[in-house]
Amino acid sequence: MQVGSAPQAPVQEGLDKPPETEKKIEDDEFKRVYYPKFVYSWGLNNYGQLGRPKNIKPTLLPKTVPIEDAEILAVSVTQIVTTPGNTFILTDLGVVYGNGVNNIRQLAGGEFLSHKFYKLDNLEDHVVKELSVFWDTCYAVTKTGVALGWGANAYGQLGRDPAVMFSARAPVEMYGSPENPVVQVAGGQRHCVILTKKGRVLTCGDFKNRQLGRTHELYDYVPREVETLRNVKQIAAGQHHNLALVRTRNEMKVYAWGWNKDGQCGDNPATTGEHAPVPFEVQFSVTIEKGAILKCGWRHSGLKLVTGELFLWGDNKLGQQGQEERIPNEPFPKRIKNLSSDEEVKDFGLGLGHTVVILKSGMVVAWGDNVDGCCGIGHQNSPVIMPLKICCGIRRISTKVFAGYKQSFAVTI
């Protein structure tokens, strides 16, 4: 050994992986053994969206999803989003998996129909932080702060002229850069909403229901700012309406715009009209603090406070509001009072016509449209008006819940 040289580590035979790779394998194995988690799914499965072979009969009780076939660790699942024909899973490594139908190339180069989850080859060069999907258009936010889109573009919702690009297999860069990063994207049926780190909101796509938040005719395929919104921290999009959580000096406020036929924007359509072309403040009876979570179903909306209280408003024809009153819609935010005071809402998801929540105890509760088994209670009697405090067939503690179209998913320990 030369003087002053560092001692050499002994060579270990069979050591053909770099230390960081071995560490990653060890961490994954530790999670698999000591933190066993499962993904359950239930509801409509006509295209295999639930991760099981397609069946015209819905899945009425939650069943485990064999995600291990795609080498996905349930503990790594950060987001599950669904459309009428697809389900997409995002992991904490920024990898996206998908299944279902591939008619508009929303699954990129995959099979035309598959119930098995597989990596989307069109995103192999990207690390994804967040997903949003609606119908057959998909969106993603990358680690570098770029909003991507692929799938259908009939209304310019991908930020491209539909006369030139009707659909896209490869993701197109819609907006954002490392200098002006995008932090969230929310897709409606025919439009897209983009949120930047600076708190600005941009929209593009169909304008028929005034969902762009600015004056324009028919559609606009160029993402442009909604001038009246500033300091936005969170966005959500329904079928044709949008919500924004805005930071003010002392509290957070919710703003809404777009289609308001069922009160999904948080105001009475009988007095203000069915459309709200400009964002307006939604009135709440409580103070909204930092940490609130905003979500949209197709035609109903929800806000969870840091206290665990859940407010819902909008369409109620299928009982998705969880209220005793059988009214067709609830245009003003109303707190769900049918949950006991010690059972705070930990997480929630809004689908086409159903609502799913996780209580503080880890129990899954569901109500609303149940024609296709969305509530996971073993039958198809619908609607389910009151929140059913049962385990939805899941006998494990749930940590995350996701709802979309007519499917529901839960991650459990």
Descriptive overview:
This protein is mostly beta strands and about 425 residues long. The chain has a single domain, classed as Methylamine Dehydrogenase, Chain H. About 5% of the residues lie in helices and about 45% in strands. It is built from two helices and 28 strands. The strands form seven sheets. Strands 2-1-28-27 form a four-stranded antiparallel beta sheet, with no helix packed on it. A four-stranded antiparallel beta sheet has the order 3-4-5-6, with no helix packed on it. A hairpin with a 3-residue loop joins β15 and β16. The longest helix has 16 residues, at about 20-35.
Describe the SSE topology.
Layout: H1 19-34, E1 38-45, E2 55-64, E3 77-82, E4 86-91, E5 96-101, E6 113-119, E7 128-134, E8 137-142, E9 147-152, E10 167-175, E11 182-187, E12 191-196, E13 201-206, E14 219-225, E15 232-237, E16 241-247, E17 252-259, H2 269-272, E18 275-282, E19 293-296, E20 300-304, E21 310-315, E22 329-335, E23 345-350, E24 354-359, E25 364-368, E26 384-388, E27 398-404, E28 407-412
